[in-house]
Amino acid sequence: VSAVLEDLLAGLADDEVVRGPRTGAYLGDESGIVPAGAPLAVVTPGSVAAVQHVARVASRHRTPLVVRGAGTGLSGGAVAPAGGIVLSTERLDRVRIDPGDQVAEVGPGAITDAVDRAARAHGLMYAPDPASSARSTIGGNIATGAGGLRCVKYGVTRDAVLGLEVVLADGELLSTGHRSVKGVTGLDLTALFVGSEGALGIVVGATLRLVPAAVRERTLVVSASSLAEAGRAVEVVTSAGVRPSCLELLDRGTLENIDGNRGTDLAARHGEALVIVRTDGVGSGAEIAAIAAALEAEGLDAELLDDAEGDRYAELRRTGRGSRPGMWKVGEDMAVPRSQLVAALEALHEIGRAYEVSVEVVAHAGDGNLHPLLSAPRLPGETHPPTRLLAAADALVRRALALGGTLSGEHGIGSAKRPWLADELGEEQLALQRRLKAVFDPLGILAPDGFLASDDALRVLTREQVPA
Ligand SMILES: Cc1cc2nc3c(=O)[nH]c(=O)nc-3n(C[C@H](O)[C@H](O)[C@H](O)COP(=O)(O)OP(=O)(O)OC[C@H]3O[C@@H](n4cnc5c(N)ncnc54)[C@H](O)[C@@H]3O)c2cc1C
Asked: 15: which residues sit within 8 A by CB, 6+ positions away?
């Protein structure tokens, strides 16, 4: 151990190593269910050369290495490995906007909102906007393939990444992709790194596509008397011939949660579910009017909001929910084809009733991406979540797969969702993906507990815990 530390510290400045109680802030993520190990070291390299040094030391000593952005991840990907190195990208936060080429050149530790703000100074914006964008990093967004509220119109992080600088496990620096709008030379390694959750390499730089900034956002809300009716409203909006810039769904449980947290009266005002629809760009007024007309023609209850109220609803959707103290919780992230949204929504409460757990849901509905939160009371003396909670989560994921969906729309797999990976990919594809990882990281030091880990010692949900 001392040889690894000695080697590591030899190539880093004092302020590139986190020591003492401050390390506590770098261990877990927001999944809340994946326990962190005690790492050997937490480092915050201030240059690409320092990242290369850390990778070389980790390779030389076969020491596990986990990359960390802001730790807002929800699948355990950034959780510290026992005896390993945590590499935080917080100091690699440069942001440079090129308004002529409409690209941003950024370090992995740049905060998502900071990139967007810098672009807006030039009449541009960085479109992918996870609800965590005030805290999440671009590196974390790239590694998880993050989505967000505007992605229904502008596409997800994958669609915004033109090129990457990546430090591989052995310390080699690789440059992928292109700076031009178009570019198809060679295999698309940029796409391979997007969503690879720190398992193939360490993203140390990115060239991001920017788009013209939204001109004026218009908002309407639909109050629905059931989840099925809300799902129907989403279908009407997506077939109205207009691409909204936000199409979100919140069920009654979520509205009550926000009301409790923020003192609002959303549940009383909107009933069983609320759908938030926004348009932006130069045609936003005409677009929102067309959507309102389509909803009204179907007898749905649509209300146009003024700009301030529209912004307030968007903000409540992003940050309004509070935590659930005293509860065991499992959050899911399945996505289904848009045509299956109503079926998926109906399955939520049916499964909640069958397993006697509470289910509340918020959804990037325009993308068919559901975030059900399953919860059960934490009884005195209980050290593990009740089996029925895990079984309900399992049933939900299986239903999403049966509907032609995927187990993760945007949060990634990490160790939290690994038990289902083979169910979706199949054993052959999973084996191929593991062989691909071995090409980039032959010693298996990167993200050793991550989604491509080859052992079956799952730390969170085990098949034994989850009855069929
Ligand atoms: C309140 C809240 C709302 C959220 N809303 C959304 C949402 O709308 N959409 C969405 O997609 N997600 C959402 N998330 C989840 C989370 O914010 C995203 O997954 C985000 O992309 C994680 O970024 P991060 O910087 O916190 O990464 P971390 O949590 O630090 O890391 C996530 C993963 O990326 C890897 N990683 C980080 N940086 C690098 C790098 N430079 N190179 C290689 N690998 C790296 C880590 O090893 C880990 O596997 C939300 C989370 C919270 C808490």
From this structure: 44, 46
Counting atoms of ligand 1 from 1, which one is nearest the CA of 89? 41
Among left, alpha and beta (phi > 0; psi -120 to 50; other), residue 381 is: left
Tokens coding 359: 């289910």
Strand order in the sheet with 173-177: 95-98, 103-106, 202-209, 161-167, 173-177
pLDDT tens readout for residues 250-303: 999 999 999 999 999 999 999 999 999 999 989 999 999 999 999 999 999 999
State pLDDT tens for residues 58-79.
999 999 999 999 999 999 999 9
CA of 154 to the centre of ligand 1 (A): 19
Q: How far is the CA of 133 from the centre of ligand 1 (A)?
A: 9
| C-beta of residue 64 within 8 angstroms of C-beta of residue 448 | yes
Report CA(365)–ligand 1 centroid distance (Å). Answer: 20
Q: Round to whole Å and give the CA distance between 320 and 308.
A: 16
CB 207 within 8 A of CB 105: yes
Cα–Cα distance list, 393 to 352, 355, 426, 455 (Å): 9, 10, 20, 22
219 in Cβ contact with 314 (< 8 Å): yes
447 CA: nearest ligand 1 atom: 47
Q: Which residue lies with its CA nearest to atom 23 of ligand 1?
A: 140
- Mention every residue, 6+ apart, whose C-beta is less than 8 A from residue 313: 219, 221, 276, 305
Nearest ligand 1 atom to the CA of 157 is 11
Helix (H) and strand (E) counts in the chain: 16, 18
Torsion angles phi and psi, residue 102, rounded to 5: 55, 50
DSSP 81: P
Nearest to 278 by CA among 254, 301, 302, 255: 302
Q: What is the pTM of this model?
A: 0.94
What letter represents residue 214's amino acid?
A: A
172 C-beta neighbours (distance < 10 Å), count: 13
Centre of ligand 1 from the C-alpha of residue 142, in Å? 8
Distance CA 412, CA 74 (A): 8
